[in-house]
Give the backbone structure.
Amino acid sequence: MCQSDLLNLPTLVDSLHAIVRNEKGGSILTVHVQTNATRTECVGIHGDALKIRLAARPIRGAANEELIRFIADRCMIPRTNVRIHAGAEVRRKRVHVKGVTAELLRNRLMPEDRKEG
């Protein structure tokens, strides 16, 4: 981590808390998705959302299903505990994750080099 990263650390931590927050019965996660990627992965922060690349096309809900699968697999929970709360037809989505705290969600989804918060 370089010195400029240390100076931006409070901003990163604040961003993470805005992106993922505890909600009754679970957490709400704001994501920005990029479809048609070679593999599904979380790549960091995009504005006020977590950027996730999806190895699926945005046709007939395939990208949404891949997003749900990815989050459920990373959190080791059933897919039925993950649902698109808002934004099913756009890149920016709000996802409700039932039975998972915001802290656990951040730890399971963030890339290793971005887990300062």
